[in-house]
Design a protein that fits this description.
alpha/beta, 2 domains, 9-stranded mixed sheet, two-stranded parallel ribbon, 11 helices, elongated, binds S-adenosyl-L-homocysteine, binds iron/sulfur cluster
């Protein structure tokens, strides 16, 4: 059993984490220890452009400055408690946070890009019926450092930091070229921390991810959609999943608060939504529930006037889930109808199902289960998943 009080590292508990501070906050920290503002810029470069993990390696900074940084601050990232790789190359880290809670981060490599799926909360307070994360009881918001820390940890693990020189192919061959806020949690229920973390990720003197390469997915927190566009300005994805309120009330209970019409009205006025930058509508394909041709036609009718594309997600099973995935034929038919109406309608290829990393399968065992019990559950889940793929 870990007893922090008797651990030699106990003093490191008092160090202030720098990851997750905005530029202004970093400047204020340095000002408080008597350093000029331009030092913050240098430090920012080391932390977020180079990915340097210890102050001693920051060779452009004076030795005495490095020493005083090391006395007060830490660049710790969340610690991976497991690191799984799927047969298809998808990688999933289970991350241990300071308070012992855990969240998951998933990297999905593709031919022309690499996408990191980032969590915004431990668990989720919303209880969408098809989503494994929604069954997790313990929920808390992640802070900005824990959110941007997922990106840093993934760049560490994938050896994806810029070393100063640009590669011959340019920057786009990065292993992480895109971010989707589609991990655990509802990002618009943790708006301030998500916005702060994404601003750090977008800073062009640091992690430097373009807002066009970041997508935030929401189950439909209508009052926050406008702010998301105005203050963060990233691509928006809406978890629609049903075209009638009675069914959506059941699948996405938040619909009772913010019904389809209000949600679509918020999309119509989403800042920055136009043809070059359409809103993605995610639609999970549930056998016999929401997958009929009539529903595809109704979807097309509802989307009229919204610069939209549709992403069909084959339902990813998890133990005890009350649904099955639609047949390939039903998914294809649905996709064809949407496509013929002029909307792009790709079917999302499930990735990382064997390591339980696919959409809606994320659930950390943060319910204070003993490790042995947790391992037994994980082994069972893996078995079940392997049988299902
Ligand atoms: N909470 C946010 C973002 C995380 S979920 C949201 O709901 O939008 C990312 C996507 O996976 C959402 O569209 C979600 O509805 C979908 N999803 C959840 N469970 C799923 C499952 N079992 N199979 C397929 N997709 C699922
Ligand atoms: Fe939460 Fe999204 Fe899962 Fe719904 S689908 S329970 S909003 S994580």
């Amino acid at each position: 059993m870990l007893n922090l009080e008797s651990e030699p590292q106990a003093t490191s508990q008092a160090l202030i984490p720098l990851i997750g501070l905005s530029r202004e906050e970093l400047e204020a920290e340095l000002k408080a220890i008597g350093e000029p503002a331009f030092r913050a810029r240098q430090l920012w470069h080391w932390i977020y452009h180079r990915g340097t993990r210890d102050f001693q390696s920051m060779t452009s900074l004076a030795k005495s400055f490095r020493a005083s940084l090391a006395e007060r601050y830490t660049l710790d990232r969340p610690v991976p408690s497991s690191d799984l790789k799927s047969v298809d190359g998808t990688r999933k880290w289970l991350l241990r946070l300071k308070d012992g809670n855990e969240v998951e981060t998933v990297h999905i490599p593709e031919e022309d890009r690499g996408t990191l799926c980032v969590s915004s909360q431990v668990g989720c307070t919303l209880t969408c019926r098809f989503c494994h994360t929604g069954t997790q009881r313990l929920v808390r918001n992640l802070d900005a450092g824990e959110i941007v820390g997922q990106l840093m940890l993934a760049r560490d693990g994938l050896d994806d930091w810029q070393t100063g020189q640009k590669s011959a192919e340019g920057e786009d061959n990065r292993k992480i070229s895109n971010i989707v806020m589609m991990g655990m949690g509802e990002p618009l229920y943790n708006f301030d921390n998500v916005a702060k973390a994404l601003k750090i990720a977008m800073d062009h003197e640091g992690l430097s991810l373009s807002r066009r390469r970041i997508t935030l997915s929401t189950s439909g927190v209508v009052p926050m959609i406008q702010r998301c566009g105005a203050e963060i300005g990233v691509n928006l994805a809406i978890s629609l999943h049903a075209v009638r309120d009675d069914l959506r009330d059941e699948l996405v209970p938040l619909n009772k608060k913010y019904p389809i019409k209000e949600l679509l009205d918020a999309c119509r006025t989403y800042p920055g939504a136009h043809n070059a930058r359409r809103i993605t509508f995610e639609y999970v394909m549930l056998k016999g529930i929401n997958d009929s041709p009539a529903e595809a036609l109704e979807l097309v009718r509802l989307l009229k006037g919204i610069p939209a594309k549709v992403n069909l997600i084959p339902f990813n099973p998890w133990p005890g889930a009350p649904y099955e995935c639609s047949s390939d034929a039903a998914i294809q038919k649905f996709s064809d109808i949407v496509f013929q109406a002029g909307y792009s309608s790709p079917v999302r290829t499930p990735r990382g199902r064997d390591i339980f990393a696919a959409c809606g399968q994320l659930k950390s065992a943060s319910e204070k289960l003993k490790r042995s019990a947790r391992d037994a559950i994980a082994a069972k889940e893996l078995e079940a998943a392997a049988a299902e793929v």
